[in-house]
Amino acid sequence: MSRAILTTVYFCFCAICFLSCDEQQEGWINLFDKDMSQWEKYLSYKHTNEYNGSIPVGTNGDTIHPLGYNNDPEGVFTMIEENGEPVLRVSGERYGCVFTKQEFQDYHLKVKVKWGDKKWIPREDKLKDSGILYHSTGDAGKDYWRAWMLSQEFQIMEGHMGDYWNIANSAIDIRAFLPEGMMNAVAGNNQSFLPMGTGSQYGGFCLRSENNESPNGEWTELELVCYGDKSLHIVNGKVVMVLQNSRYMEDGESFPLTKGKIQLQSEAAETYFKDVKIKKLNGLPEGYTSYFN
Question: By its UniProt entry, which InterPro entries does this protein fall under (predicted)?
């Protein structure tokens, strides 16, 4: 997404080796069916290039209202079938999301995603964009674009699969590699966990460690591992982001943000999702614990 300036963190912690995960099918729950029975929708405004975060008004000065919950006359979200599998097509024409009816905590999520061809205002001249928003809580429309719930974002963008963004007043600490000139600020440790998001000096955005996206037109598999206050962003089997101390800020006070609904964004780009499945975790999988040492 494009609502904040780049932070002073330049490159996030890089996982240099391919991590082999537990691929057992036991415990996996499929979240997609042809009726999207486990999901609801929220749609905001049709944003313009002049949007500045304020509630839009019409030419007559009247307030423009979002479409709101489960109201999709334009077919922004439609289920199609590909090789006998249910696939969610997101047109991107209007900002919004589908979100799970259920909240989740301590889980491993898998999602396959690929791009369509269409882009819309206000991103016609920008990279295609979407996202997985996790630990989502409260009402939709609480962010800058008035489209999503308070949450943490696993970024889905051309060339930026796995970046981090904070949504609304969320915050988190990210294991980051710093440029040499900043080393003194973190006691000489170039793999420190740095605070990001609301209340942080570093802002609300961090780049993934590397680009591991599939070629255009092919499916990219994304995995999100969440346990306690920790999370990992994984792209085609490679860890590209290491995060901990998930929280949100309110009146200067910090509160844990470790469970919630899952949102899939509509953000001005045609996007396809399939094979969305989740598995409950009883602990951080053994192969991932070293990322937090």
Answer: AL/BT2_dom
Domain boundaries, the chain: 11-47+63-292
Whether 151 and 133 have beta carbons less than 8 Å apart is answered as: yes
pLDDT digits 0-9 by tens, 115-146: 999 999 999 999 999 999 999 999 999 999 99
What does the pLDDT read at residue 96?
A: 98
pLDDT number for residue 155: 98
What pTM does this model have?
0.87
**Phi, psi dihedrals of residue 186, rounded to the nearest 5°:** -130, 40
Nearest Cα residue to 120 out of 49, 219, 218 = 49
The pair of structure tokens assigned to 206 is 């961090």
Give one DSSP letter per residue of the chain, joined into a string: --SS---S--EEPP--SPPPP----TTEEE---TT-TTEEEEE-----TT--SSPPB-TTSPBPPP-EET--TT-SEEEEEETTEEEEEE--SS-EEEEESS-B-SEEEEEEEEEEEEE-TTSTTS--EEEEEEEEES-S--STTS-S-EEEEEEEETT-TT-EEEETTEEEEEEEEPPGGGGGGGTT-TT-EEEEETT-TT-SEE--SS--PPPTTS-EEEEEEEETTEEEEEETTEEEEEEEEEEEEETTEEEE---BEEEEEE-SEEEEEEEEEEEE-SS--GGGGGGG-
CATH class name, domain 11-47+63-292: mainly beta
